[in-house]
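During the no-cost extension, the postdoctoral fellow (Dr. R.K.) reprocessed legacy sequence entries with the updated structure-token encoder. One reprocessed record is reproduced below for audit purposes.
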Amino acid sequence: MGVTASDFDALGSAIAALKENPARDGEFDAVIAQVEAIRQELELDGVLEVYEEPPRRGVFSRVVSGLFYTVIMASIAALLVTGSLTESARSIMGYSIFTVLTRSMHSVLPKDSMLLVKQVDPESLDIGDDITYLYNDKSGTITHRIIAIHEDYEGSGMRAFQTQGVDNPRPDANKVYAVNVVGRVIYSVPYVGLVLRIIHENIYLLLVLCALVIGLVEVLRRLAATRRPRRAADPPPPPGCGSAAPAGRRNRPLR
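Re-encoded structure tokens follow.
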């Protein structure tokens, strides 16, 4: 394993500091000369290799990489758990994410909001809860507020809910059976749903664009690295270091 020029510089600085300390001149003079001689011998024998430290990634490169991985994670989330009015419900560990596409609940859940919906026991639902539920034909979902509850609806033995969009003039025409309830809305973030929907609808295009941007940044980084002037392979010893051992004399290693 090679050492960098900065490692030699640090060694030379340490030796210089020892030599400049009058209290230790007599004690360490011989040690300093021996360390310097060993270093020069190892360099001449090719045991030590000086190499250029790889350039650090620039701020722009790090930002682009971070955005790339963020888009990947958001895309996976959008594919796995995002639903809308025209999609069936999907969930992970009992939670689903939906996007509000209409204005029927705009005063409390604005259009393009992201909704976090948690699966709950329908028996725990109460009037005033905002719920996401499936249409009777299971063709999609909708999020409205419970305004009335019917126990054993029409002798079915099941609980049913009367729902209404808070900004709609009248209740929904059909009752919602408990079996069709996806869950209760527990959290919402305005306009984030729009971002998730764009990612969901253009996921492959976004991934291709991100890959192209990352590739371009990597090519530019490599071009910049090849044009950067290289350090000298054999940097001169730092000032203050002891002289090399006389020719033909080989110092013993430190013990």
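The helical segments are 5-19, 25-45, 59-81, 192-201, 203-227. The CA atoms of residues 82 and 97 lie 5 Å apart. The remaining legacy entries will be reprocessed before the final report is submitted.
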